[in-house]
Amino acid sequence: MPPKVYYYDMNFDFYDEIVKPSYAPDRKIFRPVWTFLYILMGISFVIFYFQPMSIAKFFAIPLFFLQLILNLIWTPIFFKYRKIGLALADLFFLLVTVIAMTGLFFKISALLGLLQIPYIIWLFVAFRLNFDIFQLNK
Description:
Helices cover 74% and strands 0% of the residues. The protein is mainly α. The protein has one domain. The longest helix is centred in the C-terminal third of the chain and has 27 residues, at 110-136. It starts with 13 loop residues before the first helix and ends with a helix. The model has no long low-confidence stretch (mean pLDDT 93).
């Protein structure tokens, strides 16, 4: 059985210790950005939940939960285990999953799709940042 990972076990100082590209934001920016994105995800989920069942909703349900899992495991992969390359792979699959989910969300409701746009933009930024950190810290 794998060891349990707790938020307080994370070494967030790791971000300060690694070599980062010049455009890398201060780590203090991440908490408010992710709070905003999780609020949008929560709003999306409520709207999504009350939509009638359709083919798009049927396929969007597992994608929503898959992206949530991929999102949640990135933090321990990067900060606790310091596996920058594995975190990058996780982000790649997360981005692909969110793009596919968003396409289905747009078929269900324009508002659902639009609520995902900030998330997708941030994931592209996060992917690029993770990629550059991976390159700089081989």
